[in-house]
Amino acid sequence: MKRNRAAHCGLLVLAIGSWLVSTPGAAAQSRVDSLVQAGSVLLWDEGAKSALFRRQIYASHPPASTTKLMTALLVYQKTHLAGEVVISQQDLSAPGEVPTVRLLPGDRFTVADLVRALLISSSNEAALALARHVSGSVDAFVTEMNARAKELGCEKTHFVNPNGITAPGHLTCASDLLRIFEAAIAVEPLRTICSTESFSLFTTEGKAVQYLMNTNRLLGPYPGVGPAKTGWTRESRHTYAALCQRGERRVALILLDSPNKWSDAVALFDYAFGGQWSGGGAGP
């Protein structure tokens, strides 16, 4: 599986990167603008604190599973990943939904391992279990998510659930999602989890549950890509928050409403590291 992922992403890198390296300045910016299809984009130089590329960064979009960055951040702040959680029937997927991780009622997991399932394999069930464990109920946890978003300066973000399942009013924007992403990866344990390619999930009793592969296809195949969180629903289309670092240079990327986050991300990271750009720009 990993070799196939690497080959797929390698083709993207070669196809998109070849012209960017040789295309200067405004021409490269114009070219990447024509290639990138996402409705909202923010490519952010973490060192210079400036936008390298932006598109509709204040437009509201459903975040899908990038929601789980806020879930993980809040869980960490309240538990420091200590403790254990017993899975309840109410944590499991609704009838007709395909579970992302095979959790069963009565299974006991460490908080840390459920956060791994949350961020590596994007488990919707882990999000519900963690929310209930941390705040007593999912509704109470969501209230805290919204309060934390406001503390971070998010003005166009409103959460309705902790996992990103499409719901009326569950929205963010690229500018806000960058703030949430930066806050999450500033926590070293969360940053490490978001950069983990795979993980074997066990209950606290030692029962093997599932081998989890990171949903971030660029982790490994694309040079420099580190912590990231993916998302997708039919309504939101592809969403993505990722950090790419080469040497001392770090670039964050936020995508919302993308038909293909992989081609969009490769084009934008190639632009940031291989091409030339005008730089500058106001903060998000």
Structural shape: globular
Structural class: alpha+beta
Task: Please identify the top-level CATH class.
Answer: Alpha Beta
Which stretches of 5+ consecutive residues score pLDDT under 50?
A: 13-24, 276-284
EC number: 3.4.16.4
GO biological process, one term: cell wall organization
Family: Belongs to the peptidase S11 family.
GO molecular function, one term: serine-type D-Ala-D-Ala carboxypeptidase activity
Outline:
With 284 residues, the chain is an alpha+beta fold. It has helices at residues 2-22, 25-35, 68-79, 111-120, 124-135, 138-151, 174-185, 188-194, 261-273, and strands at residues 40-45, 50-55, 84-86, 108-110, 198-202, 208-213, 225-233, 237-246, 249-258. It is globular, with a radius of gyration of 18 Å.
Features of this protein?
Beta-lactamase, 9 helices, 5-stranded antiparallel β-sheet, 39% helix, globular, 284 residues
Descriptive report:
There is one protein chain. A hairpin with a 4-residue loop joins β1 and β2. This protein has a single domain, classed as Beta-lactamase. 48% of the residues are buried. It starts with a helix and ends in an 11-residue tail after the last helix. A five-stranded antiparallel β-sheet has the order 2-1-9-8-7, sandwiched between helices. Strands 3-4 form a two-stranded antiparallel sheet. The chain contains nine helices and nine strands. Helices cover 39% and strands 20% of the residues. It is α+β, with helices and mostly antiparallel strands. The C terminus is likely disordered. α3 runs parallel beside α5, α3 packs parallel to α7 and α5 crosses α6. Its EC number is 3.4.16.4. Belongs to the peptidase S11 family. One of its GO terms (molecular function) is serine-type D-Ala-D-Ala carboxypeptidase activity. This is Serine-type D-Ala-D-Ala carboxypeptidase (Penicillin-binding protein 5/6). Keywords: Carboxypeptidase, Cell shape, Cell wall biogenesis/degradation, Hydrolase, Peptidoglycan synthesis, Protease, Signal.
